[in-house]
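In response to a reviewer's request, we include the raw inputs and outputs for one of the modeled complexes. The two entities were modeled together in a single run.
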Amino acid sequence: MTRNDPVKHFFIWPALLIVLVISIFPLIYSLTTSFMSLRLVPPIPPRFVGFGNYAELLQNPRFWHVAWTTTIISFISVALQYVIGFSVALALNRNVPGEGLFRVSFLLPMLVAPVAVALIARQILNPTMGPLNELMTFFGFPNLPFLTQTRWAIGAIISVEVWQWTPFVVLMLLAGLQTLPDDVYEAAALENASSWQQFWGITFPMMLPISVAVVFIRLIESYKIIDTVFVMTGGGPGISTETLTLFAYQEGFKKFNLGYTSALSFLFLIVITVIGLVYLAILKPYLEKHK
Amino acid sequence: MSVRNLKGNGRWWALAGCLLWLAFTFFPLYWVAITSFKSPLGVVGGPTYLPFVDFEPTLTAWRELLSGQRGQFYNTFMASTIIGLSASVIATAVGSMAAYALVRFTFEVKLLTGLIFVVVAFGGYLLGRHVAGFGQATSLIYAFIAALALAIGSSWIRLPGPILGNDDIVFWFVSQRMFPPIVAAFALFLMYTEMGKLGFKLVDTYTGLTFAYVAFSLPIVIWLMRDFFAALPIEVEEAAMVDNVPSWRIFFGIVVPMSKPGLIATFMITLAFVWNEFLFALFLTNSRWQTLPILVAGQNSQRGDEWWSISAAALVAIIPMVIMAGILSRLMRSGLLLGAIK
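The model returned the following structure tokens for the whole complex.
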């Protein structure tokens, strides 16, 4: 039940004002700038170009390349995070021995600064002084160029993402698993349902709404990735691991091409919104079926 | 024997899987910890794993770091701490007040009012900038005030059209998180620069960065605290209302003490977010108020292969969060974060 009381304005206005100021200023500024040709270095007077920046971007192969790289990184890493995270959450929910210790330690990576994680990853993946290549050599594999060859570099970024964000998936799914009622499983056990059947028949459908939310959050957040890439590869080799945010940073902060950068960030916003909407549209029938 | 326990072989498989994941999680952290105690020779000579067995630990890296030979480390640490703590305190306070209001009071905003706000803000800015010839910052400020005044004014008259309720307002707050931060960070940097020309220095100041962090933490705070407040029993508050206790005293005297664990958890999640944040700090600071992530990221290009000092710097950024993870997991055991995901 909600009530009406003039004091409510006193409660909500501070937050409302702060978010309004910070969200509307950049919105107005970058939306208007995205329709203009505006450079700070070399300084040229702003000129209205309509959709010129957008058209130029959509014809730029680098934009498509960067968008594709970001998509690969996000989808693969979120898929891995979900599968691993769900398995770990299931194990923790079933009182695996030493569960208390696991719980504390599984939380940790999420709280470590991504730039620090990227620096550690650089050390571990170093071709001559790093432990991973020593291990590979020990098992008879060749020394691998983890950060200087496109495929390996993308793989390295994905594994850092998985390392860092699987704990979030574990945390959320574990909380969800603990709310599932016991009696359904007791009934299933009486019917001699195997644990495989129990998982696909009971656990997975009942966890679907939470799963959808968790994957959604992770997907949106993954698209914003910059710090890990910035430190690990700097977008290299060449531009092969450059992500959308890093591309915008290069254009805006290195070249000071403001109109172009603003248009890029709005295209980015459109990409994220489209992906979010398509994702929710695909999953909606499943969600309703299991309600 | 409860159904929740695994039987037979499954138990051992699950344990093996968990141990494997534990090793994967811990190895990088172990690695950075031991590397910070290595001597230059111990790093260059190939990977070593066990202190005292493989290599002789030294305190060189830490001594260099703490004595300030390696740049203004102390200063950066203090900047990170001050900004992190104050931004999370303000965000938690302001955000939970808003969350409480959105749970317990009725809000009705006409869709048209929102539209008026957006249209006037945009139109006012364009008018001021290109017709009246004001500077960017000035025209934005005028446009914002005009839009706000008109929007509030328009809520007094009866407007047709759909009405937005509490859930829509919450959705609006949370949807701010969907916005790619690069859009905001870059525009904010330009705005701050413009404000600097008017005499309010915001780039590389305490106020500028803290304000940006508060604004970007508010959606998370409101999202978490709303579920927390909604789970509180309303009977206590109703009893207080019967006794004519004013709403603000109900909030500060009854609700806040009851939701202490939720407030602490939200505060810590916000603190972790601000402490590790990279993009805003990269755009909005350059020297005085630079935060730890920027300094740590910079180690990479400045130091190259000096892993011992890079590791020590990374650890300074990591350790406070490790301590927090311990506290947070203890809170988690009380089922605290459960409500947050519904």
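As requested, we also summarize the result in words. Chain B touches chain A through 113 residues (CB under 8 Å). Residues 73-104 of chain B form the longest helix (32 residues).
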